[in-house]
């Protein structure tokens, strides 16, 4: 069969654009103000996506010259219904909590603090720190464990060398590595360093949704480049992900994941609950120095008990994710 047009037009037939289920979550700059004059790049929560698995909060910061920003100095403050992960690329933070933990947070080491019913902690960059660079991540606890007792776990994963990349698995399993740290929902947390020009294909758990948080320029996910501090989101159903580094220098990213968190949560300030009443109660308990949060000993700053902001006069609405 032939085209029967008398004067056929020349058409440009571009190949169909590559189809990808990747969704890029752009970070927004949040000046932390107060004693911590740092600006962070926040990708979670945001309006169209609150959670990736149980990961419910992601701040990326630095590299910051501590002589300019003053570093980090966060006085004792509370948490409920969550776990915190402090992941550093450069620098050192002194952690104290109301469980009695006194720990140094160092690059490449997982420090997982559980504040179910309640915990309080302070975080101060050490005098030896000249550059501060890292991520602050939170994990929402499922309803059955959201009153879990205070806990603090430390783990230093050994980076594993793959072709063109080094992978350090701090939570869950990836590339044949498994973290021994137990979690309340299945989770994945790993640091990936890609050599210049590297192309890395990783097997994924198809029951997980994933987020790739780009720490540096050069990180590509499924062929799409991410800006520094951006998060590339991949829904469930994927069995692999292809990561690339187009930069002439090594690129670094965090790979986060977990099965979709099925519960709606209410997040306000440092609290995760299930209702407006939950966070109102947590605030009241913190402000009245209730035993619920305990006491942080040894913090040397002036403010020994960070006051909570005023609760907005409207009911705080639960957040979940759009159906997918
Ligand atoms: Mn905190």
| Number of E-type strands | 26
Encode the helix/strand succession as letters.
Answer: EEEEHEEEEEEEEEEEEEEEEEEEEEEH
The helix fraction, in percent, is under 10%
Radius of gyration: 22 Å
Unreliable spans? none
Bound small molecules, deduplicated: manganese (II) ion
Q: So what's the CATH class? A: Mainly Beta
How are strands sequenced across the largest beta sheet? Answer: 1-22-19-24-17-14-13
Can you summarize the main beta sheet?
A: 7 strands, antiparallel
How far apart the termini lie comes to 44 Å
Could you please describe the fold and organization of this structure?
The longest helix has 12 residues, at 276-287. The chain has 324 residues and is mainly β. The chain contains two helices and 26 strands. It has one domain (13-258): Jelly Rolls (Sandwich). It binds manganese (II) ion.
Q: How would you summarize the topology of this molecule?
A:
Layout: E1 23-25, E2 28-31, E3 39-44, E4 55-65, H1 66-69, E5 73-79, E6 82-90, E7 93-97, E8 102-105, E9 110-115, E10 119-125, E11 131-140, E12 151-155, E13 160-162, E14 165-171, E15 173-174, E16 177-178, E17 188-194, E18 199-203, E19 209-214, E20 219-221, E21 224-225, E22 231-234, E23 240-245, E24 251-258, E25 266-268, E26 271-273, H2 276-287
Antiparallel strand pairs: 1-22, 2-3, 3-4, 4-11, 5-10, 6-9, 6-11, 7-8, 7-10, 9-12, 13-14, 14-17, 15-16, 17-24, 18-23, 19-22, 19-24, 20-21, 20-23, 25-26
Bound molecules: manganese (II) ion (MN).
């Amino acid at each position: 069969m032939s085209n029967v047009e008398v004067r056929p037009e020349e058409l440009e037939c571009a190949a169909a654009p590559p189809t990808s289920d990747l969704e890029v979550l752009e970070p927004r700059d949040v000046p932390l103000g107060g004693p911590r004059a740092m600006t962070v790049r926040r990708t979670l929560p945001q309006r169209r996506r609150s959670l990736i698995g149980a990961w419910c909060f992601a701040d990326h910061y630095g590299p910051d010259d501590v002589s300019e920003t003053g570093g980090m100095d966060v006085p004792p403050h509370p948490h409920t219904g969550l776990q915190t992960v402090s992941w550093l690329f450069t620098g050192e933070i002194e952690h104290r909590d109301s469980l009695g933990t006194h720990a140094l947070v160092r690059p490449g080491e997982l420090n997982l603090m559980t504040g179910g019913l309640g915990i309080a902690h302070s975080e101060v960059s050490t005098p030896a720190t000249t550059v501060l660079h890292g991520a602050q991540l939170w994990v929402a606890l499922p309803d059955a464990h959201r009153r879990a007792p205070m806990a603090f776990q430390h783990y230093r994963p050994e980076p594993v060398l793959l072709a063109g990349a080094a992978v350090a698995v701090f939570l869950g399993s990836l590339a044949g590595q498994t973290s021994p740290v137990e979690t309340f929902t299945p989770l994945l947390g790993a640091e990936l360093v890609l050599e210049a020009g590297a192309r890395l294909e990783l097997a994924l758990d198809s029951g997980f949704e994933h987020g790739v948080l780009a720490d540096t320029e050069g990180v590509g996910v499924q062929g799409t480049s991410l800006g520094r501090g951006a998060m590339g989101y991949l829904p469930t159903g994927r069995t692999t992900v292809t990561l690339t580094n187009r930069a002439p220098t090594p690129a670094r990213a965090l790979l986060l994941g977990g099965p979709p968190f099925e519960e709606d949560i209410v997040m306000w300030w440092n609290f995760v609950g299930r209702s407006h009443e939950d966070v109102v109660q947590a605030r009241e308990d913190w402000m009245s120095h209730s035993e619920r949060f305990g006491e942080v000993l040894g913090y040397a700053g002036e403010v020994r008990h960070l006051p909570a902001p005023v609760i907005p006069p409207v009911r705080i609405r639960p957040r979940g994710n759009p159906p997918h």
